[in-house]
Structure formats: C-alpha cells, structure tokens
Amino acid sequence: MSIITERKRLLIRTFTALDAKLIYELNRDPDVTHDTHDPVKDLAQVSEILEKIIISQYAFYNHGRWTVHVKPALEFLGWCGLKYRAG
User: Fold this and answer.
1) In the chain, what are the domain boundaries?
2) Residues 39-60, buried b or exposed e (16+ Cβ, 10 A)?
3) CB burial class (10 A; 0-12, 13-18, 19+) of residue 20?
4) pLDDT higher than 90, residue 62
5) DSSP string, 13-49
6) How far is CA 64 from the centre of its chain?
7) For the whole model, what pTM was predicted?
8) How big is the CA angle at 72 (ends 66 and 73), to the nearest 5 degrees?
9) pLDDT tens digits, residue range 15-60?
C-alpha cells in the first residue's frame, strides 16, 4: 500500500489485494452500480479484478484508482482516480 495523499479528514491510498471485501460491499449497492456499471457477483471476482486490472495498472501506467478513507477511523468512503482507456 502506498499513500497518495493525506489530509486532515481524508486518506487516499493505492489498492491492495486485501481490499476485495471493501469493493465487494460497495458494489452490492444498486445505486453505485447504476452509475459505475460494475456489478460483481462474489469476492473471487472482485479479487481477480483487483489483481488483474486495478493493481496491475500502477505498474503499467504509474497511476490508477485509489481507495478513499475518512479519518480518524479510516472508514472506507469509496474510490477515485484514473482508469486507462485505449485510444
């Protein structure tokens, strides 16, 4: 894990393989997937997406999507960042 930025109320960091449950819980909300178009069926699928797509983009492009946490308890708020799209 690498911290991208830390502010008084927020911490933004890179994803790790241990974040699968966070993404799974977030994407179980139909209001979220309505906008992101990223429904997931189970933790195994989320783990595969994290490993093969999200985390691998850090090495390929030196940027990607990041987790956002509210301080002080580091509650998971969601994610932000950049997503590579060919063309």
Assistant:
1) 3-81
2) ebeeeeebbebbeeebbebeee
3) buried
4) no
5) EE--GGGHHHHHHHTT-HHHHHHH------HHHHHHH
6) 9
7) 0.85
8) 75
9) 999 999 999 999 888 888 888 787 788 999 999 999 999 999 999 9
Q: Which residue in the block uniquely carries the two structure tokens 């987790």?
A: 67
What SS3 class is residue 7? coil
Token code pair at residue 66: 């990041």
Cβ(27)–Cβ(40) under 8 Å? yes
Question: Token pair of 40, please?
Answer: 């997931």
In three-state secondary structure terms, 66 is: strand
